[in-house]
What does this fold into?
Amino acid sequence: MCPDTQWAKVGGVQHDAASAHFFAAGASLARLDQLLRCPGGDISRAGIGSADVSRADGRAADASSPGKNFGEGGLEPVFAGALRQRLALRAATACAAIARLREDEGALRDAEHLAGFDAAPTPGGRLHRLWRLFTTPSVRLDARVVRVAADCLDLPPAIDCEALAALVDERSTAENPLNAAARVSALALGVIGDAAQFDAEIFALWFADLVLARRLAWQAPLPLLATTITHPSMRTATGRRPRPSDADWDLSAARAMARAAQESYALATELSRRSNILLSVAPKLRAKKAARVVDLLLADDCVSPTRAATSAGLSDRATRRLFDRLMALGAVRELSGRANFRLYGL
It folds into this structure.
């Protein structure tokens, strides 16, 4: 895997010209785009033969080559599910802070993976569910899906979901994916109307990632913009975080997207290494049906022993022994830091 080129890194540019931020965003997204088109988990060649961004100039850094470089069979890396779910957790944590909720990353993870099946989600848990919707690539975006997303935020029933779905599905524009994502997220604010400010802002960020993924022809969106929009380095001249209603939102979105793409690439590098270890030790596992647990680990941020036992048809004792074995082999990590109610993931 190629390291980030210095000139394309956040902070690598030595001036604050808008064109440099758009260029960094385009270069970073092009590199992330290549990663998502590496089938079978081999991302060692990600970036080789990538879309040429060296000719991108000004505010139109070109990250658009949808469908050009997809891997064999259109497959994504084997850890793509874990990548999306972990980014969903990061996005939910940032959005919980925007909404002034007290739930941190650990609390959100517990609420999703340890709460009972019929337990009502907390406000933070609903935010987490909103971003986890991105991990369902087979779902066709329409007004019904937009309504499901809106319900995660308790948005008013009167909002025009048909109009919002039409915004995302707009394919006729010739503008680059980055500008389209910023523009549609700002337009979505006007359609949402009277919703609470925090909820409308979070929904607009969700739409930005959705539009970007559609324009880049990704199999499913990656939670990106929300993961970095609250970073201190993103603050405006007045000291507050950028908002989709700002006049210079396109520039703020480019700066945040550049950082998000680079951090996502770094996370993918780590997940690639860990998934390779997991797949290499899988043949050594004695437990029958262990393959199902391996699939769960590759597809999600983490897995509880109870869920693994239920999904794979294993006893509680066999499940505990399987995770102990995976830990001993260095194939998984325990993420909660607790002695009980443990959670395991890449």
About this structure: The two ends are 19 Å apart (CA to CA). Residues 45-72 have pLDDT under 50 and may be disordered. The chain is about 50% helix and 0% strand. Residues 220 and 238 are 35 Å apart (CA to CA).
